[in-house]
Amino acid sequence: MESAEPEPSGSRPEEEEEEDEEEDEEEDGALLPPEQPAAAVRMEDCLAKKMEITVSEAEKRTGRNAMNIQETYTAYLIETRAVESQSEGQCAPVESLWRRYSEFELLRNYLSVTYPHIVVPPLPEKRADFVWHKLSADNMDPDFVERRRIGLENFLLRVASHPVLCQDKIFYSFLTQEGGWKEMVNETGFQLKADSRLKALNATFRVKNPDKRFTELKHYSDELQSVISHLLRVRARVADRLYGVYKVHGNYGRVFSEWSAIEKEMGDGLQSAGHHMDVYAASIDDILEEEEHYADQLKEYLFYAEALRAVCRKHELMQYDLEMAAQDLTSKKQQCEELATGTVRTFSLKGMTSKLFGQETPEQREAKIKVLEEQIQEGEEQLKSKNLEGRDFVKSAWADIERFKEQKNHDLKEALISYAVMQISMCKKGIQVWTNAKECFSKM
Amino acid sequence: MSGGAASAPKPLPSSGPKSLREMPHPLATSSSEEMGPALTPSPDLLLPRSIADKDLSLPNGTPVDTSSPASSSSLLNRLQLDDDLDVETRDLFVTVDDPKKHVCTMETYITYRVTTKTTRAEFDLPEYSVRRRYQDFDWLRNKLEESQPTHLIPPLPEKFVVKGVVDRFSEEFVETRRKALDKFLKRITDHPVLSFNEHFNVFLTAKDLNAYKKQGMALLSKMGESVKYVTGGYKLRSRPLEFAAIGDYLDTFSLKLGTIDRIAQRIIKEQLEYLVELREYGPVYSTWGGLEVELSEPLEGVSACIGNCCTALEELSEDMTEDFLPVLREYILYAESMKNVLKKRDQVQAEYEAKLEAVALKKEDRPKVPTDVEKCQDRVECFNADLKADMERWQNNKRQDFRQLLMGMADKNIQYYEKCLTAWESIIPLLQDKPETK
Question: How far does the CA of residue B402 sit from the closest CA of chain A (Å)?
Answer without folding.
Answer: 8
